Known about the structure:
The chain has about 300 residues and is an alpha+beta fold. The protein contains ten helices and eight strands.
Amino acid sequence: MQEEYxxxxxxxxxxxxxxxxxxxxxQTISKVACYSSFHTHRLFKAITNETLNSYVARxxxxxxxxxxxxxxxxxxxxxxxRYGFLNDSSYSRSFKKIYGQSxxxxxxxxxxxxxxxGKANSKNGKDSFITEEYLCNxxxxxxxxxxxxxxxxxxxxxxxxxxxxxxGEKGIESAFEKIVKWAMPREILSKRNxxxxxxxxxxFKITDADKVRMSIGIASDQEIKVDGxxxxxxxxxxRNIVGHYEIAPEEFEKAWSALFIWMNENxxxxxERNPFEIYHxxxxxxxxxxxxxxxxxxxx
Length: 300
């Protein structure tokens, strides 16, 4: 029964991601889950540690934050209306509760900024971006990626993804172990163009680390049959920036920051599809404990 609960909440999470600009009432979500409203509400809270309403509200604000950073063509008013806010004032109040600054201030502060969030005061204690710190570090990151990374623009096919949901950083290794343990006896990883993968549905720059949702799984351009609590979805075909790296686990944050800087400086725009990682080795088997990995940013 636990497996069935997880599968249904996975379905709900995917539905919410795809419909943040529509009416996401408890009744609507309950129909997706195929449970009563009462049971859906309790089950969602038990698995995600957030109520449905608070989760949807947070995701909408975080989606607008991403648009403020990556889509300068959209006005703040257009972004507010798209995600169901009655006016700029209600949107600004909701945004400030999470980020400690107005959407206008946030957009200005984070223009061309893809660095680590720096400390700033807010009611929630949430960090905000600091442009000065970014500018001091940008040249080092640009030099680092030249030495460590090989970047290309690549059209990638639709990939099937057998996955488990991971929320937050705690337990990531267990999630990887679970999906590999599931795949090994089924010989899925022995198929061509099949690799362990991690998809980011949230950004660590936008979302608190303990709330970031990831799909950790097996990606393949071939058919995958799933069972139990393993979900099945897809990574849409499209054009991507692909950064090829051989790096230590502690260098991932630097690698992602450098790749976003490269994207910006070369005039590319991030698409609304989710960034992801594809792994080409088991880093425990590498003589220097390094990951051979592709970091992938979907672009327009």
